[in-house]
Design goal:
Elements lengths: L1 H16 L8 E6 L1 H6 L4 E3 L19 H14 L8 H10 L9 E11 L3 H4 L1 E11 L6 E13 L9 H17 L7
Parallel strand pairs: 2-3
Antiparallel strand pairs: 1-5, 3-4, 4-5
């Protein structure tokens, strides 16, 4: 009887540690030949669109849009050698004159599609999904893209309510850096 009990506990432990079949990460990335032809040197990072992040179509999920946006900007400058204007300048230009006045080689557009923190406490993981697209200045052609769904972002503890904001910011930075690591260096 004791052997059966140990076997059942072991089996339940193993099952609990497995990801469900619908939590398999999906990632796609691609570079259009136009990227090499145009050789963008400066990139404007648009505000992160997290409008689709809801729990039950009424409650919006909290997501650190500005933290991700600034992480994207800093990564493009430090690791990829792009010239990137500040978020304030971009926002002021967009609101006063419009997108056509940005005077840039490319525009980075981010649409968050998933931000699931339900397994943060039990497993130390946030599941994320997003579309990252580098577009021509007019927004009509895609130069590069990275899309992910059910992307697991491990978060070291603590995981309580008091650390929720810091954990979300850390995960947003990691997702931003991971996505842009797939962007080619400028020539």
């Amino acid at each position: 009887m004791k052997t059966v009990h140990i076997a059942v506990v072991l089996a339940l432990t193993l099952v609990a540690c497995q990801s469900s079949a619908n939590r398999m990460p999906v990632e796609t990335a691609g570079v259009d030949p136009l990227f090499s032809e145009t050789g963008p040197k400066d990139v404007v990072v648009l505000p992160v669109d997290a409008s689709e992040l809801t729990r039950d179509e009424t409650e919006r999920v909290a997501f650190p849009e500005e933290v991700m946006r600034e992480s994207l900007r800093k990564y493009l400058i430090a690791k990829k050698s792009y010239a990137v204007p500040t978020a304030d300048w971009t926002d002021d230009t967009l609101s006063s004159v419009g997108r056509e006045a940005l005077d840039t080689d490319a525009i980075l557009e981010i649409k968050m599609r998933q931000w699931d923190t339900s397994l943060l406490s039990p497993r130390g993981v946030i599941y994320a999904g997003a579309d990252f697209r580098l577009l021509t200045p007019d927004g009509r052609q895609e130069l590069w893209h990275y899309t992910c769904r059910d992307r697991q972002i491990p978060i070291p503890g603590p995981w309580g309510e008091s650390a929720a904001s810091a954990n979300a910011e850390m995960a947003a930075r990691r997702l931003a850096e991971d996505a842009l690591s797939r962007l080619p260096h400028r020539d």
